[in-house]
Amino acid sequence: MEPRRQHESRGRSSKPADARRAALPSRAMGALWGWVAGGRRGRRRGRGLLRSAPALAAAGMLCTALAAYACWGQLPPLPWVSTAPPRPVGVLLWSEPFGGRSTAPRQPPDCWLRFNISGCRLLTDRAAYGEAHAVLFHHRDLVTGPPDWPPPWGAQVRNAKELRVLDQEEEAAVAEALATPGSRPPGQRWVWMNFESPSHSPGLRNLAADLFNWTLSYRTDSDIFVPYGYLYPRSHPGDQPLGLVPPLGRKRGLVAWVVSHWDERQARVRYYRQLSQHIAVDVFGRGGPGQPVPDSGLLHTVARYKFYLAFENSQHMDYITEKLWRNALLTGAVPVVLGPDRTNYERFVPRGAFIHVDDFPSAASLASYLLFLDRNPAVYRRYFSWRRSYAVHVTSFWDEPWCRACQAVQRAGDRPKSISHLASWFER
Ligand SMILES: *[C@@H]1O[C@H](CO)[C@@H](O)[C@H](O)[C@H]1NC(C)=O
Ligand SMILES: *[C@@H]1O[C@H](CO)[C@@H](O)[C@H](O)[C@H]1NC(C)=O
């Protein structure tokens, strides 16, 4: 539910990626704790080189000529390779996420200034539909309100006004027709974009098969992977968070939790009920027992606590939101997480950077561990050792997914692809 409300990243939000997908964390995390994308990337490179014997021979000769170390990237990239500007790519945001059709389109970001991605034309005017290399469709807006698809591409319908208005009766036929070849501008990719978990993504099964070419989500196995945040190697003294350990003297509180949608049926509320019988938890936010967030703001408030309950609203693979990245890791409160299992978290953050509720047989024993850490600052401080090597990036919505989509098009070949089983993939 969060992207809508998400603040812009306070950290340096423009750390560029060198991974092949928009997958920034592969570089950041691969070496240290064996994150999958590093391996995947390696295999892909292998496959590329070995595709055919002549290619292999050519690659071999090139390596010999230039000396092997140049081939493995230890020298700066070859000038005639690196100076070629990426091809200009247009990406149309079909509608403002969560905005409804009446919302004025946002001002597109400058992908170069923000994320070091050049050659992007970010479009909001539907009149440019025919020119777009990719169109971003935000899931929630596709399944709420009246249907809102581009009309079949072809003969007459090309002016902006007609593109906006579509009779509802035509709609069912149109939805079917759109998945068939020839009904869309040639070479254009439709991208299904979603940052909600499957529990909060209604209507998945109403979307026609093969309608979308790519997926864009927090799931690592998306075509365009954009996590809610990630760690990257610390290279600059100003990288966030500042300092190796937050100022502990300012931490007057023990456990904080910020929750905006209070629902007794959610696992996080049930766990909180048990935990708060054994340790004081200060709850902020609308609904439930929360008190209003003080005027100093959420991040300043949470920074004064030793622990933050980074409890996700539902438990799904890779569904780790800004509650971890921004509210806990960036502010310097040790995250106590409830979400996917520990193994899944360890694909994103070092194991010693967080406390998982599953590490304890009961909320009572978690509470005694937190009280133990409160009395033993030396042990508590170990939860910040990741800061020696890493900084936190918090993804900014929707600028960052938009620019990453452009980058993905630039890096992709022409091979067509479409998503046949969106619901069963995403709900897995
Ligand atoms: C920006 O991207 C270019 C390649 O497009 C790369 O050479 C350069 O190092 C990147 N800049 C930063 C600050 O990482
Ligand atoms: C995108 O999907 C459509 C519908 O399945 C398909 O006809 C088209 O070839 C795909 N295009 C690309 C570039 O993948």
Count of folded domains: 2
Order of secondary-structure elements: HHHHHEHEEHHHEEEEEHEHEHEHEHHEHH
Could you give the count of β-strands?
13
From the spread of the alpha carbons, the general shape counts as globular
Radius of gyration: 24 Å
Mean pLDDT: 81
Helix share of residues?
A: 25-40%
Task: Please report which band the strand proportion falls in: under 5%, 5-15%, 15-25%, 25-35%, 35-45% or over 45%.
Answer: 5-15%
Distance between the termini: 20 Å
Structure description:
With 428 residues, the chain is α/β, with parallel strands linked by helices. The protein has 2 domains: 6-11 and 79-227 and 396-427, no CATH class; 236-390, 3-Layer(aba) Sandwich (Rossmann fold), CATH 3.40.50.11660. Helices cover 32% and strands 14% of the residues. It is built from 17 helices and 13 strands. Strands 2-1-3-4-5-6 form a 6-stranded parallel beta sheet. A 5-stranded parallel beta sheet has the order 9-8-10-11-12. Strands 7-13 form a two-stranded antiparallel ribbon. α13 links the parallel β11 and β12. α1 crosses α2 (36-49). It is globular, with a radius of gyration of 24 Å. The chain starts with 24 loop residues before the first helix and ends with a helix. Residues 1-57, 59-80 and 155-165 have low confidence and may be disordered. The chain binds 2-acetamido-2-deoxy-beta-D-glucopyranose (2 copies). One 2-acetamido-2-deoxy-beta-D-glucopyranose binds next to loops.
